[in-house]
Amino acid sequence: MRVLVYGANGWIGSQLCDLISEAFPTAEIARASARLENLEKVRVEIEEFVSGGGDLRVICAAGLTGSHAPPYNVDWCETNQERVLEVNVSGVVHLAKCCAARNVHLTYMGTGCIYEYDEAHAIGGRGFTETEEPNFIKSFYSLTKIVCERMLQPYMEHTLVLRVRMPISAHHHPRNFVTKISQYERVVDVPNSMTLLPSLLPVAVDMMRLERVGVYNFCNPGTLSHNEILELYREHVDAAFTWQNFSLAEQARILRAGRSNNTLDCSKLLRLYPDIPSARECLVELFRNGF
């Protein structure tokens, strides 16, 4: 198998490369050099990749979620809209088009931050399924992801979309949701679907291998609130840790862009992989093993 990875040097992309190498020692992993916004370079790179033959896969773990310096959040996208549009929409859709034209499977690491709780999906109620219309457009980042998913529809026979939510890894990293909220002075306390990467990235690799297609809410079953996460962090990692809460209205006053809070229905994913652990179970194990 030969795999071309866009975003291979990023947080999630580098983890995917390591997992592919572990699962398939003979696999050839190529780290894409073309940036997604350079459409012609992407086209040429895909053509060169295909010309090498073999059992081919492409992964897109690239995209713009914020700046490359603190605070690493989506507020940055509000003042860099043209650049974000070029990468998160034009670049991704062009990549999917190039892959589909050459019958190459594409795995795209998308986002589930395209919904917010509403009357039909209240906190503690049913989650959003993959077929429901996104209802969150309070950040430009989320808007680009909604538009991208819609524009990928002509290429879905060759494309797998994995909707990641508030990803958590086993180690501190600026993009790790636990790292983020443990460094904030104040946090809101809202239950959300979460993507525990140690349990789900191996699933992504398997879905790539099997050339699964379609859209999947790529999160663990169950939800975690900010306070639940920090309580577990205090219990298992730092007994002296403290934090303060504030309301969603108070949070909104210090942010440029809105923040998505939702529960995603991951039953479609669980039908294929019923042993995926709950978000809480996975987080406790992660903390116990030395965060």
Characterize this entry briefly.
This protein is of the alpha/beta class and 291 residues long. It has helices spanning 11-23, 39-51, 75-78, 81-101, 140-151, 177-183, 197-210, 226-236, 248-252, 267-272, 279-288; strands at 2-6, 28-31, 56-60, 105-111, 159-164, 186-187, 214-218, 244-245. The model has no long low-confidence stretch (mean pLDDT 96).
Mean pLDDT over the full residue set: 96
Secondary structure tally, helices: 11
SSE pattern, N- to C-terminal: EHEHEHHEHEHEHEHEHHH
In the predicted model, the low-confidence regions spanning at least 5 consecutive residues are none
Shape: globular
CATH class: Alpha Beta
Separation, N- and C-terminal Cα atoms: 33 Å
Strand content: 5-15%
Explain this structure.
The chain has 291 residues and is of the alpha/beta class. It has one domain (2-285): 3-Layer(aba) Sandwich (Rossmann fold). Helix content is 40%, strand content 12%. The chain has 11 helices and 8 strands. It has helices at residues 11-23, 39-51, 75-78, 81-101, 140-151, 177-183, 197-210, 226-236, 248-252, 267-272, 279-288; strands at residues 2-6, 28-31, 56-60, 105-111, 159-164, 186-187, 214-218, 244-245. The strands form 2 sheets. The protein has a 6-stranded parallel beta sheet with strand order 2-1-3-4-5-7, sandwiched between helices. Strands 6-8 form a two-stranded parallel sheet. Helix 1 (11-23) packs across helix 7 (197-210), helix 2 (39-51) packs parallel to helix 4 (81-101) and helix 4 runs parallel beside helix 5. It is globular.
